[in-house]
Fold this protein.
Amino acid sequence: MLTKIMHIYKPIAVSQGNSQLTKICALAYKKLIQPVLMYGYVAWMNIATVHMEKLRQFERKILRKSIGTQSRNALTNHYLPNKQLYALTETTRIDRLMFKILERLIDRDNVMQTELPQHYPTECLTAHHIHHLMDMGIIYDEDDNLIFHHRRNHSLSHADGLLYNISQ
């Protein structure tokens, strides 16, 4: 799939350096690739932390490929930091986008939320428990950073710490 995606951007990437081209490439990502990555996310939103990190890495790889030479710093030739990459392409991280859509779905349905029973297996996490997890501080931290997919095996304990850098 990655090779097919690269061929989409090849004609566009020939003349990089224009901010309009960056917007066009970012729009192509948002309209063509991101929906494919997010297909059925409600069913698999509680995937393992390592799989979500691989999905985010794939997303960043595609974004860097889409904007071509602008993904590197002109002076040092290093990749742009992830925050700058998302700002340049005006893209929301895929995990954050998933939770935004899920929150809107829950708010729209106004389904009565229930608390997690003791020893509830988090592998079967459903949308009915999202508000309770938000109240517990499991999904977002105090700075409104998404931390759900950064937890060790989706642990519900704050003492377990986080596996990945949340400020990317």
